From TrEMBL:
<dbReference type="GO" id="GO:0045214">
    <property type="term" value="P:sarcomere organization"/>
</dbReference>
<dbReference type="GO" id="GO:0008307">
    <property type="term" value="F:structural constituent of muscle"/>
</dbReference>
<dbReference type="GO" id="GO:0030018">
    <property type="term" value="C:Z disc"/>
</dbReference>
<keyword id="KW-0677">Repeat</keyword>
<dbReference type="GO" id="GO:0060048">
    <property type="term" value="P:cardiac muscle contraction"/>
</dbReference>
<dbReference type="InterPro" id="IPR001781">
    <property type="entry name" value="Znf_LIM"/>
</dbReference>
<dbReference type="GO" id="GO:0060537">
    <property type="term" value="P:muscle tissue development"/>
</dbReference>
<keyword id="KW-0479">Metal-binding</keyword>
<keyword id="KW-0539">Nucleus</keyword>
<feature type="domain" description="LIM zinc-binding">
    <location>
        <begin position="119"/>
        <end position="179"/>
    </location>
</feature>
<protein>
    <submittedName>
        <fullName>CSRP3 protein</fullName>
    </submittedName>
</protein>
<keyword id="KW-0862">Zinc</keyword>
<keyword id="KW-0440">LIM domain</keyword>
<feature type="domain" description="LIM zinc-binding">
    <location>
        <begin position="8"/>
        <end position="68"/>
    </location>
</feature>
<dbReference type="GO" id="GO:0005634">
    <property type="term" value="C:nucleus"/>
</dbReference>
<dbReference type="GO" id="GO:0046872">
    <property type="term" value="F:metal ion binding"/>
</dbReference>
<dbReference type="Pfam" id="PF00412">
    <property type="entry name" value="LIM"/>
</dbReference>
Amino acid sequence: MPNWGGGAKCGACEKTVYHAEEIQCNGRSFHKLCFLCMACRKALDSTTVAAHESEIYCKTCYGRKYGPKGVGFGQGAGCLSTDTGDHLGLNLQQGSPKPARPSTPNNASKFAKKMVDVDKCPRCGKSVYAAEKIMGGGKPWHKTCFRCAICGKSLESTNVTDKDGELYCKVCYAKNFGPKGIGFGGLTQVEKKE
């Protein structure tokens, strides 16, 4: 019998799924907003979904619940995974998931910790994130702040020197902190005392 009132029913919320908002997985239709891991509630897509019968999971939760257990089946080569998935609502002994956690975390400490651990640029004092980080003098710098403190020349690993927590190009460092006298770039002739 044809379905005259719209599309198929969503596998998660059982409401009608119209074609424009439909995602199909394992012969079932889902709303884009309902296409979530049954354990951790993370949004899924075609590359991250793993289906088991009528349930859908992210690959991590699927592996914890249905993957092999024991020595050598951890997250990396040669490790033992002791993660039972309890923090995700997976009860591996009974084989059925606990009620799903709310999509908003109750404990924001992980997020707060990440925000606190961000390095600060010694030049401007702002946070330096991995995409813009350059290390110099043992400290993280923004790419735009990685300049000579005297002449402002942009620095690279081949021409950077540091002194007292500040960066200099080799020319400015030599002029200001290098040896003085004949043959050292500072003086070209001997000054006579009268």
